[in-house]
Amino acid sequence: MSEKKAIIIGAGPAGLTAAYELAIRTGMQPIVLEMSQWMGGISRTVNHNGNRIDIGGHRFFSKSDRVMDWWLSMMPLEASVSGSFAITYQNRQQELTAEGGGPDPETEDRVMLVRSRKSRIYFNRSFFDYPVTLNLNTVRNLGLVRMMKIGFSYLWRVVFPIRPETNLESFFINRFGRELYRTFFESYTEKVWGVRCQDISAEWGAQRIKGLSITRTLLHLFKKLLPKRRDIRQKDVETSLIEQFLYPKLGPGQMWETVADRVRRAGGEIRTGWRVTRLHTDGDRVTGVTARHMETGEDMTLQADLVFSTMAIKDLVAGLDGPVPDDVQQVASGLMYRDFITVGLLLRDLKIRNRNGSRIDDNWIYIQEPDVKVGRLQVFNNWSPYMVKDPQHTWIGLEYFCNEGDELWSRSDQDLARLGVEELDRIGIIRQEDVLDHVVIRMPKTYPAYFGAYAQFDVVRAFLDRFDNLYLVGRNGMHRYNNQDHSMLTAMTAVDNIVAGRTDKSNVWSVNTEQEYHEEK
């Protein structure tokens, strides 16, 4: 295959994984076309004045041994903790010891940290455990009467579940009861997606929170009383409940910059600033692509033996130069997305503190206050202390969900920064006078939506699957709300098929639907 070329659209986790796997396993030359100048897609790291931002928060945790092994082959585990964990990959146990083990993050950058996970909910100007736990703090914050309503509401739905479970509202109510759904799920989910839960497919719940329920949360609390296994796999723990995860020293983009270097060393190319505008077809094959340079407007056409696409499916279908059935065009053009804004704020300190006066240790906080637009808050110091130029300062990210072109998206950076500062000050999290710096980052098409034309998505999938050398991988490439490990697995599985000579793509589409691991959020 040494003379064959694979065009890969997009340098996110799926695209770069595909490029690396093709280069080392097939001998094909991968050529990655990336619209931006950065590696990692929404998993990139933004460096603003020496302070780094993780867009959306990326825990490096997977119940796939293959993915965990792959990550650590790129970036080794830090020495300071490597002796504390027995890690099992692909039926072999590897004892990592500090002696001759991983690098010291104080002196080396290419290193994976082991981080503690903590998330909480901020609601009614109070903190709640995430997921909500039936403890004294919850009872105190909600009151005994509401807690009793939550309990009876949940038991009622255990006995009388809603059938059929057709939308996200019924999905939530069946697992948590109507009272808890209305308290913690309804307004926040509608803030994220901009539509009612009744209008979102239940498939979103199956994709993201299949394994989470009140019963699972209580079982997890019981297991915490038992002796702990020092194993970062945590395969017996629901993903929303994991207590530790891996994280690159300088943020998620560091992983994908490392992978990009490996791709180049293996003979691949990565061309940045090129947006694919056309896919050329001949019958059931894609023969090449045309891309336009984002700055110069120059067009470039490349021939291809294989094409891996991570671009938005609505753009992919619109770019096909062959005949496309009317129903496929209609469904593809009706696919919808939710867009994302991060407002980074550098602070002297947060107003909220731990009880002992120290900085809070949350990775992120879900802001479920209905009187503000901000949806989630990250504390980057707690993802990695090396993300912050001056560790005496607190570096946070405010996350806003919107639609590209709407009123929020169209505000100036200065207006968005003012909005974020005012909202966090109003709900008691920061003081306006403590803000030292800010930055605003917009990310279009961050979340493929499970509404709009999504109910007819199989029409588009069946049409695109007939192109035998076209592989759809990743979040936007498959219009599926995957995490980066699932996106990577779709690319790995597609390359497996190429190596094995398999033409059926059903196993690529089954990633994160039939496997053990489902990401909960």
CATH topology of the largest domain: FAD/NAD(P)-binding domain
State the assembly state of the protein chains.
single chain
CATH architecture of the largest domain: 3-Layer(bba) Sandwich
First-to-last CA distance:
41 Å
* Rg computed from alpha carbons, rounded to a whole number of angstroms: 23 Å
Domains (count): 4
State the shape: globular
Outline the biggest β-sheet.
Answer: 7 strands, mixed
Low-confidence stretches: 82-100, 233-241, 514-521
Going by CATH, the homologous superfamily of the largest domain would be FAD/NAD(P)-binding domain
User: What is the level 1 CATH name of the largest domain?
Assistant: Alpha Beta
* Structural classification: alpha/beta
Summed over residues and divided by their number, the pLDDT gives a mean of: 88
Strand content: 15-25%
Number of strands: 21
Structural account:
- This protein is α/β, with parallel strands linked by helices and 521 residues long.
- It has four domains: 5-43 and 254-334 and 453-509, 3-Layer(bba) Sandwich (FAD/NAD(P)-binding domain); 76-108, no CATH class; 129-222, protoporphyrinogen ix oxidase, domain 3 (Orthogonal Bundle), CATH 1.10.3110; 336-449, Protoporphyrinogen oxidase, mitochondrial, domain 2 (Polyamine Oxidase, Chain A, domain 2), CATH 3.90.660.20.
- Helices cover 33% and strands 25% of the residues.
- It has 18 helices and 21 strands.
- The chain has helices at 13-25, 65-74, 79-82, 136-142, 144-159, 168-176, 178-193, 203-208, 214-223, 252-265, 313-318, 326-333, 380-383, 413-426, 457-465, 475-478, 484-500, 506-509, and strands spanning 5-9, 29-34, 45-48, 51-54, 86-89, 92-95, 112-116, 119-123, 126-129, 244-248, 269-272, 274-282, 285-293, 299-303, 306-309, 335-347, 364-367, 376-379, 394-402, 435-452, 470-472.
- A hairpin with a 2-residue loop joins strand 3 and strand 4.
- Helix 4 (136-142) packs across helix 5 (144-159), helix 5 (144-159) packs across helix 6 (168-176) and helix 12 crosses helix 15 (457-465).
- The chain is globular, with a radius of gyration of 23 Å.
- Mean pLDDT is 88; it is low at 82-100, 233-241 and 514-521.
